[in-house]
Design goal:
By secondary structure, the chain is an alpha/beta fold. The protein has a single domain (2-96, 114-147, 178-233), classed as 3-Layer(aba) Sandwich (Rossmann fold). It is built from eleven helices and eight strands. It has helices at 9-12, 23-26, 44-51, 66-75, 99-104, 116-132, 147-154, 160-166, 172-192, 199-204, 222-233; strands spanning 2-3, 17-21, 28-31, 36-39, 56-58, 84-89, 135-140, 196-197. The strands form two sheets. The chain has a six-stranded mixed β-sheet with strand order 1-8-7-6-2-5. Strands 3-4 form a two-stranded antiparallel ribbon.
């Protein structure tokens, strides 16, 4: 679903697109056979680019936070078109912690890569910068984690019991913390009166949603990217 007060939806699909985001918008997934991350040929960005015949510049970076998004915008400023649509996907890395540090010293203070308040501030700054350059920002919220898979991934080769205790004894806290950043994106879209495509609800509504995510619990697999494509193209 696209949330907006007044926007010409068809115009979104008739302009050049800039994509800024992390590994999900870059199209990276975990290959369970090769045991490594690789870029999907049929990622949702590539699919909508082909299906809707879009002119797309994808500046997404594996591991990127919204701070990296601002740096990418500045770095490629001279190569950007004079306006268009800017598809943004951030939050999954911003909310992540240094799990090795937590495993070594759980009693120390540990902050996420980008604390929530700063995440909101930087995301708003990114939106404002894009609008000044005549881009229409289009936000994506976050697909939900498969929390136990995610915990197994981040605690591998570390002291899983120490990390779980730091989390309060349950992986539910990971899911809720990750969701708080997705909620912040939705609230920011509402505040700035800009469109947001709600991929999170689409994932949560799938009875087999675990089959849409990679073994790492955080990246959509090819089937998950197909669902994102479906949701986006339903609004074209």
């Amino acid at each position: 679903m696209i949330y907006a007060l007044s926007i010409n939806r068809s115009a979104l699909w008739q302009k050049p697109w800039l994509v800024l985001g992390d590994s999900i918008s870059k199209g990276v997934a975990f290959d369970p056979l090769k045991k490594r991350y690789q870029q999907l040929k049929n990622s949702f960005v590539e699919r909508i680019k082909s299906d809707l015949r879009l002119d797309v510049m994808n500046l997404s970076v594996f591991g990127a936070t919204v701070e990296k998004g601002l740096k990418q915008l500045d770095r490629y400023r001279d190569r950007l078109t004079k306006g268009g649509v800017a598809l943004l996907h951030f939050g999954g890395n911003d909310c992540n912690f240094n799990w090795a540090d937590i495993s070594r010293d759980p009693k120390a203070e540990h902050l996420p890569q980008i604390p929530l308040k700063n995440f909101i501030h930087l995301y708003e700054q990114l939106i404002d910068n894009l609008q000044r350059q005549n881009y229409q920002p289009l936000l994506l919220n976050l697909p939900p984690l498969i929390q136990d898979r995610f915990f197994a991934t981040i605690s591998r080769d570390l002291d899983a019991d120490v990390i779980l205790n730091w989390l309060g004894g349950t992986t539910d806290s990971i899911f809720k913390w990750h969701k708080s950043y997705s909620d912040a994106v939705e609230q920011l879209a509402d505040k700035k009166k800009i469109p947001l495509i709600d991929i999170r609800s689409a994932f949560l509504q799938q009875p087999d949603r675990e089959t849409l995510m990679c073994d790492d619990g955080m990246h959509p697999n090819a089937k998950g990217h197909a669902l994102i494509t479906q949701i986006m193209e339903a609004n074209s």
